[in-house]
Every structure is written in structure tokens, then in C-alpha cells.
Amino acid sequence: MFNNSKKRLIALATTATICLSTATAIYAAPEITKTLKAQFPGIKISYNGQVKSSDKEPFIVDGTTYVPIRMVGELVGKSVSWVGESKQILITDNTSDLSIQLIQKNNTINTLTKENESLRSQLKALQDEMESLKDKTPTTSNLSKLEKQIQNDHEKYKRMFFDISLKEYRGDIEVAIDIDLHKDSRYWSDLSETDIKNYIYDICDDIWYAYRDVRIQGHIYDIKSREYLVEFESDSRQRLSYDFTKTLDINKLEYEMDRKYSNYFPGIPLTIKLSGDKYDLVYKVNVDYERYKSEWRNLGDARIRGLMTAIYNDLEKKVSDTSIDGFICDYYTNETLAEYYTAPSGNSNFRPYY
Question: CATH code for 140-243?
Fold first, then answer.
């Protein structure tokens, strides 16, 4: 019994020495759960004539004797440690704890490096797939899915409903945006040109996400009056230009401004008049100055300037990129009482003459 045990011990020690003389690691097999029938006949381990005790008793399974590897490794002068992250048993030449920690750290780094390389490879594959989707040429068949998505995302805007369709033409994309102003005219008139531009750009941006280099042209069309409200097109650098083809309705805008500001100062009735076009617009605030001279002067410059600024800002929202000048005049003599304009520098100027 003793001789057989000694032979098994020497064979195990020799195997460990051969395997780890080059500081290699023994890797654990994939995790498998098995039920084993073990015998514990009270096996003793002897090294150089001395019996060694251990709290882990050797046992026999199917004719094979299993002994604690840490105890055997330490008997032959090796250091034994367990690396939970990689499920490895490390057997190295007996050295300092710091060296063992360095080996374990290097092992962990190598494992993480491999995982990182795998993730990078997967990410690169996904990026290549996305780029290939962006670069593909639009066709009638592959535009249908994008059209449906854009319709779902942009069908409703500021209480209005739009019908959006896409069409491929010689490698470009045509966008048709239809609206029924018989139902939505009130909401449409509340929009500024900036609002409309932002709405169009959001649609085009979704198209460029799918087809990066495509040129876009399109329009917003009123199906009730059969008029084109806005036309737009892009260049090769995704820059949009707009043409608001419908002329400015001065009378309608004048009515809106007069209704909003005629009672701006309680007790002093005002009337608002507009003249000009979408490129140069003039608003005039008429007041019966002779009758309300005292009340008018009591208002002070700050409140009067506030009125003119409010009207200017409202008009600028309705008709962007327009030169706007404002005046306050005596209702009967047409004498100018105040002037308001914006200098080329962008600074607003208010000049009272009363």
C-alpha cells in the first residue's frame, strides 16, 4: 500500500513539475455537474518518509485515487492558487505573493483583451452593415418601408395632419407633403416660416439617415386650393433651400394684428395697418393723439416701445427674412409719433417724436 501510494505521489508530482516548469496554466474543463460514488478508505500521503495530514481526505472514484492538489503542490515546492474569473488552477514555482498576484492579473488582462477584441469585431460588423444601408441606392421597393416610418413620425405637426409620400427619380428622392387647408387653415396661418422649415428639415434628416448622399426635392401642397405652399430642394451637402411660393396675404395678417393689439393700452383705442410685401413690410399704429395726448404721454417710452417690439416680433414669426419697419402716427394728421426698426447690426432702434 505504501509503495503504491508513493508511486502515485511521485507520478503526480513529476507530472506537475513537467507541466509547470515553463510557468504554464492548467485550464479547468467546462463546468459539468456529475454524481460520483467515492470511497474514503483512510488513504495517507507520505513524502520523503513523512506522512502528511490534510483536512481534505483523499478518496477513490472508479479505481482512481484523488488527492488535494494544493497539498501535493506545496510538498514539491510549488505555489498553488485559484483564479475564479477564468476558472484556472495556477501552479508556479514557489515565489512571493506579489508575483502570484501579477500572474493572476496578467491572466485576467489576457482574458479581457480577448473579450474586447471579440466585441470590437462585432461592433465593426454592425457599423459596416449600417454604412452599407446608408450607401444603397433608393428604389421604389426599399422606399416603401421608409415612407411608412416617416408618415408615422411626421403625420401630425402642431395640430395639423399631413400625408407624406416618397418617390425615387433618377437616384434622387422626391417628397410630396399634402395638407387640407380647408380643415387646418387656422393652424397653418399660426406657423412661422421657421416652423415650416424645421418641419421639412426633420423629414429630410430621416431620409439622409437611411440614404446619406441622396439629393431631395419636394413640396407642401394644399389639396383644397390645389396650390403649392412651399417648394424645397437640397444640394449634395445636405443643405436645403426653400421657396415659399404663396404670396403674403396682407389683409389677413393686418386683421390678425389689429384684433390682437387694438386694445393693447386700456382706454386708448388703436388701429393697425400693414403695407408692403413679403420682402419689405411696414406696420403703422394709428392713435387719436389730440384726444388721448395726456394718457399717451403718461404711458412712458418703455411701454410704447414694448408695443412696437411685440408687433415686430409677431410679424417676424409670420414672415421671416423680411425687412420690417414700424411707425406710430396720429390718426387724423398722419404725423409720426414714434419709429421702430432693426439696424443691419441686428440691434433694434426706437425713436419717439411726441
Answer: 3.30.70.2960
